[in-house]
Design goal:
Blueprint lengths: L1 E6 L3 E7 L4 E5 L2 E3 L5 H4 L9 E6 L5 E5 L1 H5 L10 H17 L4 E9 L1 H4 L2 H11 L3 E6 L5 E12 H10 L4 H4 L4 E6 L4 E8 L5 E3 L5 E3 L4 H15 L7 H9 L3 E4 L2 E4 L1 H23 L8 E5 H7 L8 E3 L6 H11 L4
Parallel strand pairs: 1-7, 7-9, 10-16, 16-17
Antiparallel strand pairs: 1-2, 2-3, 4-6, 5-6, 5-8, 8-9, 10-11, 11-12, 11-13, 14-15
Length: 335
């Protein structure tokens, strides 16, 4: 079985083959406290996601994952070292469970460019997952055992590019100068591909990297806006703000309904300006020769109207574009 897992700082996305399982959830975990019976009383759909995991050699642990963890006060956090690496492993196991993986699994893992380009961190994360074996129960399902038979680590923006090459735009992009911008939660990755030999484009590593800016900035801007309207600090969990934005852009604070959509949109413009400036600085005059600027990630959809880059194209299925590319690279290895 193959599984592609795109672990971002904001969301974890996963695809599996065969079977076609897919899942997305916020990259947040928290220890599970209580039985979950109160939530279950409101219907099974409200329990998402609760996981029991017994990693080989470690005692059984129970976690809330994704939106359930955010609702319990957790924040999105993982890192390439120390305790953060353990959080990363739990997110990977959760993704495997969510797509119905079982038994031996060949895994492709996507990393932000800033992590991927650090060879030591990349190797440590790969070694931490390779051979990982655990019994996992997800949302009350029967426990299944998964084991990482192999692990391939890939940079996130490359997955979106590879997926686009195999899509409807592939013929137009092959062998051309192409930019990829993957806008995540805490960071935004940018990748420049330049024409190489045999009609194949190759990454320009010197002009590719990560910017410490992403969709968390507009969320923070909403908090600041509400604070200015109420005159008191507003520290609502990000999950609450995201839910409000999905449902019309209104937050109720102390009995008062506040429209936060305009503040959010203005912050998107500011984020887009910052990303544009960094890319213009990094790519320079090469921008004039781009056949396309591919936008990936949920952030790509949100920021696209405000970016000032040539030939902007939101890739097909942008949220899963990296995972789709990884899965294709894993199941159809390049020669």
């Amino acid at each position: 079985m193959f599984a592609a897992i795109d672990v971002g700082y904001g969301f974890t996305k996963a695809l599996a083959s065969p079977g076609g399982g897919r899942s997305i959830f916020p990259s947040a975990i928290a220890p599970a406290r209580g039985s979950g019976d109160l939530a279950a009383a409101l219907g099974g759909g409200t329990v998402q996601h609760r996981m029991s995991v017994a990693i080989q050699g470690v005692e059984l642990q129970e976690f809330l994952v994704g939106s359930a963890a955010l609702a319990a006060g957790a924040t999105r956090s993982w890192s390439a070292d120390g305790d953060g690496r353990q959080d990363y492993a739990v997110l990977v196991l959760a993704a495997l469970a969510a797509v119905g993986a079982s038994g031996l699994v060949d895994i492709a893992l996507g990393l932000p460019l800033s992590v991927y380009l650090n060879k030591d961190e990349r190797r440590r994360l790969r070694d931490h997952i390779w051979g990982l074996r655990a019994a996992v129960s997800w949302d009350g399902r029967a426990s299944t055992t998964v084991e990482a038979a192999s692990v391939k680590v890939l940079p996130q923006a490359v997955g979106a590019y590879y997926s686009a090459l195999l899509g409807s735009d592939g013929a137009r992009l092959a062998g051309q100068m192409v930019g990829v911008v993957d806008i995540g939660y805490h960071t935004s990755d940018f990748l420049l591909l330049v024409p190489g030999g045999d009609g194949v484009s190759v990454p320009d590593e010197a002009r590719s990297g990560s910017l410490d800016a992403g969709m968390s900035q507009p969320i923070d801007a909403v908090r600041q806006y509400v604070s200015s309207k109420t005159g008191t600090p507003f520290a609502a969990p990000e999950g609450m703000i995201e839910a409000a934005l999905r449902n019309g852009g209104h937050l109720t604070v102390r009995g008062r309904e506040i429209d936060v959509r305009s503040a959010y949109d203005e912050a998107l413009r500011t984020l887009a300006d910052r990303i544009t400036s960094e890319i213009q600085r990094s790519w320079g005059q090469r921008i004039d020769f781009l056949s396309a600027t591919l936008l990936a990630g949920g952030g790509g959809q949100e920021v696209a109207p405000y970016l000032h880059l040539p030939a902007i194209t939101v890739v097909e299925d942008p949220i899963y574009a990296n995972a789709a590319g990884f899965l294709q690279m894993l199941s159809r290895p390049q020669r």
